[in-house]
Amino acid sequence: MPRREYKLPGGTETLKVETIAPIEDPTPATPYVNASLLGQYNTEAILRAHIERLGGTVEYGTELRSFEQHPNHVEATLVTKNGEKEKTETLTSHWLVGTDGARGIVRKQLGLSFIGETRTDGAIHLLGLVEVQGLDADHWHQWAEMLNGGLMLIPTERTGYFSFFLGRVQDVEKLLVDRDALVETFLNRVERQDLVFGKFEAVSPYRPNIRMVDKFGEGRVFVAGDAAHVHSPAGGQGLNSSVQDAFNLAWKLTLVEQGLASPSLLATYTEERLPVIAAMLQKSTKLFEALQKGDTERAWKRGGDLRMLGVNYRWSSIVVDERTPKAQSPESVNPYGSGTDGDLRAGDQADDPTSLFSVFRPSHHTALLFNIPAEEMEQVLRVAQKYPSGSVKTVSIYPQGTSNPTDRDGHAYAGYQVSPEKPTIVIVRPDGVVGGIYFRGVFDATGDAL
């Protein structure tokens, strides 16, 4: 969606129109190549609905006050408020994951460092959602540079509502509670009277913080999302990064809880996510600084890395690659972009040709069997069957020219860079990451390859 900047004074004449990210044609490997904006209210509604389908609930009005770790469980003290009354209860669980934001207590009580900086230029900005009449929904609308006192309004999927970024505000506390004062501020920024600002459904202050933890957990307690890292909204990396944190931890916790993996697996949560988040903070901070300097060309340029398709764990201790030497450290690769350098290695995001979208699931590992001979296929299936039902799924992929081709268009063989003459096994983790690339014969009697 193009960004339209208006000339000041006046606020109605178009100064320039810039394309933030050009629309690209989808490919079999990346059928969803173009980004989509989704409001937080809809994102939360989708997540709540999914939790409910799984039999869970989200409990509101409940505060975590403290927790205590024990050798085999965690005791959390919760407080529920009903008017002026407080009810305290103790919840016992095997694990605790703090996604309670930058101001939450989980990170603080764990004693994790929050490395980085708070920008001290005194600037406070406002973010939120507002109803607007008089603007089209085909552009982002901007008056002056946001970080120099400007205003940006971004259409949402909700008709008539725009996300807003209001730069460098004064009397923050007043604007948070006084709607008339906030409307007046908006009108002063746009310098026009033809726009009608209606209901404000969300307003929150934002001060530039660029920080991250030194590790993502301790013992039986972990942090994810804003509890582990905070940064500017430049580049739109926050939500997806947080979801990737949770996904990386969730499948590992599941295997440990089911007794299918050693608790030592959980140490790889920090090992894998820490370098990725560090790289993300560098990228989002550079964009933020470009916005501050008014360097619009650099600030709004969206490179391939920001699509996050190149996020990888090529250095991870739990990935195995018999085809390409594994990276010895995250410093030897780009944790944010090496996955789009033309190679597919263990630790990269799995290639997702359309035929495999229905196969990968967060609830199981997937073994892709490329042209495995029938006699060896039986051995592979016997090993897979040793695991609990549903935890491992095997998919046989035969190339073009065979009697029963399953990859008729060659997308899977091309995407995974497999030669039809060399039988190969690719293991895809529940989080959609290639966990291993093996050649024939890797499945021993104990099934250690999985």
Describe the protein's architecture and organization.
- The protein is an alpha+beta fold and 450 residues long.
- Among the domains are: 2-23 and 122-206, D-Amino Acid Oxidase, Chain A, domain 2 (2-Layer Sandwich), CATH 3.30.9.10; 320-439, 3-Layer(aba) Sandwich (Glutaredoxin).
- Helices cover 23% and strands 26% of the residues.
- The chain contains nine helices and 21 strands.
- It has helices at 40-53, 105-110, 172-177, 179-190, 238-257, 267-292, 296-299, 374-384, 411-415; strands spanning 2-6, 14-19, 62-70, 73-82, 85-93, 96-98, 114-118, 125-133, 140-143, 151-155, 161-166, 196-206, 209-213, 217-218, 221-223, 229-230, 320-321, 365-370, 392-397, 424-428, 434-439.
- Strands 2-1-9-10-11-8-12 form a seven-stranded mixed beta sheet, with helices on one face. Strands 17-21-20-18-19 form a five-stranded mixed beta sheet, covered by helices on one side. It has a three-stranded antiparallel beta sheet with strand order 3-4-5.
- α5 (238-257) runs antiparallel to α6.
- It is globular.
